[in-house]
Amino acid sequence: MKMYVATIPGEALKVRSKESYYARQKKLFVLLVIVVSIMPLLIISWTSSHFYRHSWQRQTSLALASLAESRLEVVNLFLENQENLLAGLVDLYALEKLADQDQLQQVFEAVNHSGVIVDLGVIDRQGRHLSYVGPFRQQLLARNYAESEWFREAMANGRYVSDVFQGFRGVPHFVVAVTASDRSWVLRATINSELFNSLLQSAEVGPGGDAFIINAKGELQTPSRLGLSTMPREELAALTGTGAPRILFSRDFIHVAAGVKNNAWLLILKTDIHTSLAEFYRARNRDRLIIAAAALTILMVATLLVRSMVGQIEKADRQRLVMSNRMRQAEKMALVGRLAASVAHEINNPLQIVGDQAGWVEELLEGEGASNAENLAEYRKASAKIREQVKRASTITHRLLGFSRKEGERVATDINRVLEESLSFLETEAQKHRISFRKELAAELAPAVTDASQLQQVFLNIINNAIDAIGEDGVITVTTGSAAERIKIEFTDSGPGLPPENLGRIFDPLFTTKELGSGTGLGLSISYNIMQRLGGDIQAGNNSGGGSVFTVHIPAAVGTLANSA
Amino acid sequence: MHPTNLLIVDDEQDFVATLLKRLQRRGIACRGALTGSEALDCFRQEYFDTVLLDMKLPDLDGNTVLRGIKKIRPATRVLILTGHASYSSGREGLSEGAADYLLKPVEFETLLEKLLFGTAKHSRGSPEQEHW
User: Fold this and answer.
1) Minimal Cα distance from B13: which residue of A?
2) Is the alpha carbon torsion for A325, A327, A330, A333 positive or negative?
3) Which chain B residue's Cα is nearest to A347?
4) Disulfide: which of A160, A265, A473, B113 matches A154 by Cβ 3.0-4.6 Å?
5) Of A356, A460, A461, which is closest to B108 when you measure between CB atoms?
6) For A162-308, where are the E strands, in sequence order?
7) Does A143 touch chain B (CB under 8 A)?
8) Which residue of A has its CA nearest to B104?
9) Rounded-to-integer distance, Cα A71 and Cα A267, Å
C-alpha cells in the first residue's frame, strides 16, 4: 500500500482532549449564574413568603379579636338589657300588681315585642310562684324554687343570670332573675336561647370557623357550628383569663377568647388558619410560579450565553492551536532544510573524490594492458559500479539541497502551462500503469509571479505520489481555479486515500509509506518547503468519494501587468 | 579553444591530486592550489587561461578569489565547482563573471568537457526533474 497523507499535524488530537475542559467550564459558568441570580430570588421568595404569612396570620387574629370584642359588647348588652328590663319592672310595679295573673300578662305583652322573653314569673320569698305568663303555666305554677340555685343566688345578690340549661323543658334556655329591693319577691324571666344564639351565629369567622360561649365548667352555652359539645381542657386553660381578648394559635386554628357576664362565661371565636390563609396561599403560589418562570428564563439565557461564550473561546483556542501548529511545522521544516543541506554539502565532496578515484583506477587499468586479463573485466565492472553508486548518492544529495534552495527567478507564469508540462513528463509512466489524466483547467487563469521550475517540482511530486498510490488502473484529476487572489490547484486521485493516522506526518521529512529503497520520503517535505517559500501552501486530505486530494495554493499576480518579478 | 594551462583550486587534497594526475595523463598542463591565497599567488606567477574554483576555501571565500582573478586577468575563464551549493553564492559567482557553476559530484568526463571546451550546457545547477 503506497499512500501519502497530510494536514495540520496533531491538532485534531489536542482539541479533542480539551473537550472535557470546555464542558467543565460551561457547567461552572452556568452554576455560577444560578448561584448569583437564582439563589437570591429564592431567598427573597422564601423570606417574603414567611413574612407575609406571619403578618397575614397576625392580621387575621387581630380581626378576630376585634370581632370578639364587638360580639362581647353585643352579648353583654343583651344580657344587661334583660337584667335592666326586669329590674325596671320590679322597680316600676308593686308586687300586688305583678302577682296578679292578668296584670302580669299585660306587662309581659308590653315588654316582649321582640319575643326574646319566653315566660315571666313572680316568685315569693318561699320560692312559690305567685303568677306566671308563658307556655308552661301548668307545669310551673305548682313548682317551688326554694332549693334552686338560681333562686338562692338571686336572693343573695339581688340579680342573677343562669348558665344555659335544659331544665325539664327539654329546650336550652337560661334564666334572668331580679329581686325586689327588700328581697321579698323575685321577678324571673326565661330568655329564648335561639335569639341569643343568633347573635353569635352571625359572627363572620369564615367557613371553618366557630363562635360560641362556654361557662366556667367548659360547657357550651351556645351551640358550636362545628358540632363541639365541650371545650378541650387544654384550650380552655390557655384561654381562661380576664381583660382584653386573648389569642391562641394552634396547628389549625386561631382562637380568640374574651370574658362575658363578668367573666363567668367565655366567648370563644375560632377561625381555621388554612381557610383564612387561602388568599395568601393563592398569592404565594402565583409568586412561586413567577419566580419559577424567571428562574427558568435566567437558566435558559445563561445556558445559551455561556454556550456561545465558551464556544467562542473554544474556537479561538482551536484557531490559535492551528496557527501555532503551522508555525511549528514551518520552523521544523526550515530546520530540517538547513540540516539536510549541510549534510548534503559535506557528503558531496567525498562523493566527488570517490568517483574520481574509481575513474582513475579505470584509467590505470587500461594502461596495465592484459597483464592480468582474468580479473581486468571484474576491476572495470567494480569501478563502474562505484561510479554508478556515486551518481545515485549524488541524486539524493542534490535533492536534499532542494530544501535550502534560495530564491530562483520569479516571472509571470501560466500555471496551466506548467501543469500541462508536468503531466506530459509523466504521461508515459501513467500509461504504463493504465492511469489516465483528467484536466479541468480554468480557461482564464490569472498568472502567478513565481519560480516555475520549483513549482513544477511540486507538481511532479504530487502527481508521482498519486500514480504510486493508485498502483494500476485509475484516474488523476487536476483542477485549477481562482480563489480570493490565489490560484488553487487540486490533484484528486482514485487511489485508496490517506489513512487518518498518517495525515499528521505526511509532510514530515523522511516519512514514507513506500517500500524501502523506492522512496526517500523527501518529495512532499520539499514540496512543502517550496510552497512556503513561494508564499503559497500545500494541504492534503481525503476526497469524500475516496482517494486523496492534494491542494496547492499560490498567490495570483495582482493586476494585469505582471510580467516579471 | 584548447587551454594551455589549468589551475585547480580546492581544499580537498585528494580531489586536486587525482584530478591533476588524470589531466596530466591526457597531456594537459595544470596546477593545483589548496587555498585561496595560494591560488592567487599561482595566478600572479603563471598564466592560466582556465580556473576550476571551489566556493568554500579555508582562507578566502570563493567569490573573493574569483574577483581577484578577474581583476588580474579579466579574460580568464573561471568554472565554479562546489559541494556547498547555494543559489545566492552561485548567482553571485555567475554575475562576477564565472563561466559556469557545477555542483559536486560531477563525472570526470563532464568536467573535462567543460574545462576544455565549455560546451556542456549552462545548467546553473538546477537539478534533476526526475521523479522520486
Assistant:
1) A353
2) negative
3) B83
4) A160
5) A356
6) 173-179, 185-192, 210-214, 246-249, 253-260, 265-272
7) no
8) A348
9) 8
Record the cell numbers describing residue A368, joined without a space: 596495465
Cell of B5: 594551462
Mark yes or no for CB contact A402/B127 under 8 Å. yes
- CA–CA min distance A564, chain B (Å): 18
Taking each helix axis from N to C end, the angle separating A373-404 and A523-533, rounded to the nearest 10 degrees, works out to 40
Pick the residue of A4, A343, A346, A356 with the most B CBs within 10 A to test the interface with B by mutation: A356
A30 burial (CB, 10 Å; 0-12 / 13-18 / 19+) is middle
List of chain A residues whose C-beta atoms are within 8 Å of the C-beta of residue B22: 356, 359-360, 363
Residue A383: alpha-carbon gap to chain centroid: 83
What's the mean pLDDT in A145-162? 85
Assess A353–B contact: CB distance below 8 Å, yes or no.
yes
- Provide CB contacts within 8 A for A482, sequence distance 6+: A442, A445, A446, A488, A556
pLDDT digits (tens, 9 = 90+) for A247-278: 888 878 888 888 887 778 888 888 888 887 88
Give the three-state DSSP class for B82: strand
Distance of alpha carbon B3 from alpha carbon B117, whole angstroms: 8
The SS3 call for residue B77 is strand
Tell me the one-letter amino acid at A455: L
Average model confidence (pLDDT) for chain A? 81
Please state whether the peptide bond connecting residue B105 to the residue before it is cis, i.e. omega within 30 degrees of 0: yes
Q: What residues contact residue A289 under an 8 Å CB cut-off, 6+ apart?
A: none
pLDDT of residue B118: 64
CB contact under 8 A, B132 and A355: no
Q: Which of A136, A129, A123 minimizes the C-alpha distance to A170? A: A136
Which burial class, exposed, middle or buried, applies to A256 when counting CB atoms under 10 A from its CB (0-12, 13-18, 19+)? buried
CA A256 to chain centre: 48
A84 grid coordinates: 335592666
Is any Cβ of chain A less than 8 angstroms from the Cβ of B15? yes
**Phi-psi category of A519—alpha, beta or left, where left has phi over 0 and alpha has psi -120 to 50?**
beta
Cα separation, B81 vs B61, in Å, equals 13
Q: In terms of Cα–Cα distance, which of A551, A531, A540, A528 is closest to A448?
A: A531
Which pLDDT tens digit goes with each residue over A224-252?
Answer: 877 777 777 767 777 777 667 788 888 78
